[in-house]
Design a protein that fits this description.
The complex is a heterodimer. In chain A, the strands form two sheets. In chain A, strands 2, 4, 5, 6, 9, 10 and 11 form a seven-stranded mixed β-sheet that branches. Helices cover 0% and strands 49% of the residues of chain A. Chain A is globular. Chain A contains no helices and eleven strands. In chain A, a hairpin with a 5-residue loop joins strand 4 and strand 5. Chain B is an all-beta fold. Chain B has no helices and twelve strands. The chains are: A mainly beta, B mainly beta. At the A-B interface, strand 5 and strand 10 of A face strand 6, strand 10 and strand 11 of B.
Chain lengths: 115, 115
């Protein structure tokens, strides 16, 4: 049982480059989320999805895009990378939805550095 | 707006002693509260949650949390700390009442257990 899988684990980007962080889950969860974690800070929600074909912005969406073509996959796209996007990115999923008490399952994280 | 606060950046406890990690919240309506733990270089893991019912909630790894409505607190506790409990702990509260509602994380408390 793989749970939530994120790739890559580490990546260094130059300013202005673009990349996609991959996230896939094998638990048939409808709800998926992308968070970023900066040092000494809690997690900030970037984008989320309540099912295939449905996405919405979170707290800090600027500079990112997402898509949800299947239940399993929820990739996060960074366009024109900036140093402010240096962070650790976590993908998470839940069956019920966090607003009704759903427990989040997290991936191992993707550490991104923009130089 | 819903919010959650963790007033201590770091808590230091000797192995075998009881531990408490503090969390206070501000919500309108009934709070759904969560605790998550993050071990080094890993994603967050769910520990326990309060939705309704008994104010004392038991969770994974021997942890428990006490919901106190009058003090708007949800402190995480363990009777006897282990060195392996050393990690970063996050309190969270739901931000809304539908399944699509998000959760808001606190800034985290680093728990250090000395042998």
């Amino acid at each position: 049982n793989a749970g939530v899988t994120q790739t890559p684990k580490f990546r260094i980007l130059k300013i202005g480059q673009s990349m996609t962080l991959q996230c896939t889950q094998d638990m048939n969860h409808n709800y998926m989320y992308w968070y970023r974690q900066d040092p000494g800070m809690g997690l900030k929600l970037i984008y989320y999805s309540v099912g295939a074909g449905i996405t919405d912005k979170g707290e800090v969406p600027n500079g990112y895009n997402v898509s949800r073509s299947t239940t399993e996959d929820f990739p996060l796209r960074l366009e024109l990378a900036a140093p402010s996007q240096t962070s650790v990115y976590f993908c998470a999923s839940t069956r019920q939805g966090t607003g009704v008490g759903g427990e989040l399952f997290f991936g191992e994280g993707s550490r991104l550095t923009v130089l | 707006a819903q919010s959650v606060a963790q007033p201590e950046d770091q808590v230091n406890v000797a192995e075998g002693n009881p531990l408490t990690v503090k969390c206070t919240y501000s919500v309108s309506g009934n709070p759904y509260l969560f605790w998550y733990v993050q071990y080094p270089n890993r994603g967050l893991q769910f520990l326990l949650k309060y939705i309704t019912g008994d104010n004392l909630v038991k969770g994974s790894y021997g942890f428990e949390a006490e919901f106190n409505k009058s003090q708007t607190s949800f402190h995480l506790k363990k009777p006897s700390a282990l060195v392996s409990d050393s990690a970063l702990y996050f309190c969270a509260v739901r931000d809304g009442y539908s399944s699509a509602s998000k959760i808001i994380f606190g800034s985290g408390t680093r728990l250090s257990i000395r042998p």
